[in-house]
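Usage

Read records sequentially. Each one opens with the input sequence:
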Amino acid sequence: DAATTNPWGFHPRFLPQRVKANDGLVPGDIHVDAVARYLYHIEEGGTAMRYGVAIARGNLYEPGVYAIRRKVKWPNWTPTPAMIKRDPAAYQQYANGMPPGPKNALGSRALYLFEGNRDTYLRIHGTPYPNSIGGRASSGCVRMVMAHIIDLYPNVTIGSMAHLYSAEDSVTSA
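and closes with the structure output:
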């Protein structure tokens, strides 16, 4: 059970939990709180499923509102040219891509974020590094435990919006 098992040993607050949603949020949309490191998937009836996440390190986190235009099970992954330039030791070996599998950087599932029809190369995805949850670890994406993204994935529809809030616009209550 993704909501109660915790083989990763992280704080229980990062386990999936159904919570009351803020008023006025659109069912089906996703909201990412950069401060608390939570992803909320808004449900009908005023609730949301909340998951713990990791966000991008340093200044690589890109707040904004994005459309989810693509979903992929067991995706391929290729680092962007900017990633390779920034850290060739880590990324050059994957310049031609990394095949799907449990060690793939996008993990078991990926939601692709777009601005209009332009792929931003930002993703909400699984990670083979569950110990990163609650931190700042990625090169721009929102990371989830693989079991949690597998739980979320079938409930997200193409065309839903993903709201990535900055630290200043946190969605958590004071």
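Summary fields computed downstream for this record:
- The two ends are 30 Å apart (CA to CA).
- The longest strand covers residues 64-73.
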